[in-house]
């Protein structure tokens, strides 16, 4: 009897121990899950060109982002008149803020990302999501664009209207009640790739195919990385003066050249004013009587390709960017890393730049670059960095 009693007692203690251990495991695991789910989602904001500033939630004074900074829900991002910046979410989606623009990160997470565009323009490259209830939206004062995987641009105009450009996929475009901020999806329209939609401040909806001029707009090309050839619709050709067309080419951009007199062709008289000689292909900036033209990109900054398109962070190696107008490049931004022209990358010539792969973060990133003249160029989701 005693032995049977102790045996039963031991069994009870053993079972109790198992229950306690299981409970402790469940508690620890569940606590970890709760902590993980409670972790606030963040994003990385990186300055592409000039000034990008952030005003954290609850703070009144904006702070300039010199390179990259972690941002979260409630933060306001703004750019100067010649500034651009990119916000990269944890799922790989990105939002590029254009010149003189302002947006607030309303919500940030795996299932819902919401941006309030107050002024200016933003371009979104949204990662394809498959789960139900997951979406990405950008809201202006009178409209909201909602997607589940696409590439599009949205502009909030000063008159209270909004314009949507769709590059890939389909965007649901709906009016917003300016008083309540609620979207009216009953009146929503699905705008396909290649179309432009406008919603006036009186909620009048119009939709038309994007013209060649709109597809070749600098802001669109900057975000899509592609342009149409022979697209002249709506593009005003550059008219050169007689002095520009007849002046002898300058072979050395650093050598002073003789200015010529501008002739008013319409009146056939000499205006008495002088104009600089023809601009070399790799020159821009103001003409100097003593220094001639400085060797730079003449506003022709373009990023055509990146090779290789996939690199290993641990493997090191170099990445080659090709395009035009590189002689004045000042920064190249990839993910949260910003390379500068002093030591971060090497300008081989006007069409080639080389930079190291070992310093890059891991992920899929836009590649964006800027020059000293305020020009910017980029390729969306062009580089994959693995371990």
Which features characterize this protein?
387 residues, mainly beta, Jelly Rolls, Immunoglobulin-like, five-stranded mixed sheet, 30 strands, 45% strand
Give the structure's gist in a few sentences.
The protein has 387 residues and is mainly beta. It has helices at 2-38, 212-215, 218-224, 242-246; strands at 42-49, 52-55, 63-64, 68-72, 76-79, 84-89, 94-97, 102-107, 112-125, 135-139, 143-147, 151-156, 162-168, 170-175, 189-192, 195-199, 205-209, 260-264, 269-275, 283-288, 292-295, 302-307, 310-312, 318-324, 329-334, 337-340, 346-349, 352-356, 363-371, 376-386.
Write a structural description:
The protein is globular. It is built from 4 helices and 30 strands. A hairpin with a 5-residue loop joins strand 16 and strand 17. The protein folds into 3 domains: 42-224, Jelly Rolls (Sandwich), CATH 2.60.120.1440; 242-285, no CATH class; 302-386, Immunoglobulins (Immunoglobulin-like), CATH 2.60.40. The chain has 387 residues and is mainly β. The protein has a 17-stranded mixed β-sheet that branches. Strands 23-30-29-25-26 form a 5-stranded mixed β-sheet, covered by helices on one side.
């Amino acid at each position: 009897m005693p032995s049977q009693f102790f045996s039963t007692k031991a069994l009870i203690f053993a079972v109790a121990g198992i229950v306690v251990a299981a409970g402790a495991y469940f508690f620890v695991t569940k606590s970890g899950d709760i902590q993980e789910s409670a972790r606030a989602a963040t994003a990385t904001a990186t300055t592409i060109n000039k000034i990008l500033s952030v005003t954290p939630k609850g703070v009144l004074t904006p702070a300039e982002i010199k390179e990259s900074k972690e941002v979260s829900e409630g933060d306001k991002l703004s750019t100067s008149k010649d500034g651009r910046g990119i916000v990269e979410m944890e799922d790989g989606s990105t939002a590029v803020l254009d010149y003189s623009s302002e947006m607030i990160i309303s919500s940030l997470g795996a299932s819902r990302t919401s941006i309030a565009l107050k002024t200016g323009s933003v371009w979104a490259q949204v990662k394809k999501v498959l789960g139900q209830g997951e979406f990405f939206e950008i809201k202006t004062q009178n409209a909201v664009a909602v997607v589940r995987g696409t590439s599009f641009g949205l502009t909030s105009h000063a008159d209270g209207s909004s314009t949507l450009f769709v590059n890939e996929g389909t965007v649901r475009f709906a009016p917003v009640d300016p008083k309540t901020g609620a979207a009216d999806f009953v009146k929503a329209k699905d705008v396909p790739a290649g179309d432009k939609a406008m919603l006036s401040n009186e909620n009048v909806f119009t939709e038309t195919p994007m013209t060649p001029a709109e597809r070749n707009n600098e802001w669109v090309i900057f975000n899509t990385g592609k342009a149409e050839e022979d697209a002249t619709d709506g593009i005003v050709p550059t008219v050169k003066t007689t002095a520009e067309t007849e002046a002898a080419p300058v072979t050395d951009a650093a050598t002073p050249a003789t200015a010529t007199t501008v002739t008013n062709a319409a009146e056939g008289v000499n205006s008495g004013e002088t104009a600089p000689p023809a601009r070399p292909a790799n020159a821009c900036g103001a003409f100097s009587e003593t220094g001639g033209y400085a060797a730079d990109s003449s506003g022709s900054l373009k990023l055509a390709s990146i090779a290789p398109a996939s690199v290993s962070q641990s493997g090191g190696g170099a990445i080659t960017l090709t395009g035009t107008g590189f002689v004045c490049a000042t920064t190249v931004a990839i993910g949260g890393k910003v390379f500068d022209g002093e030591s971060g990358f090497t300008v081989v010539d006007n069409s080639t730049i080389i930079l190291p792969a070992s310093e890059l973060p891991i992920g899929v990133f836009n590649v964006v670059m800027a020059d000293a003249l305020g020009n910017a160029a980029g390729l969306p989701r062009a580089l994959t960095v693995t371990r």
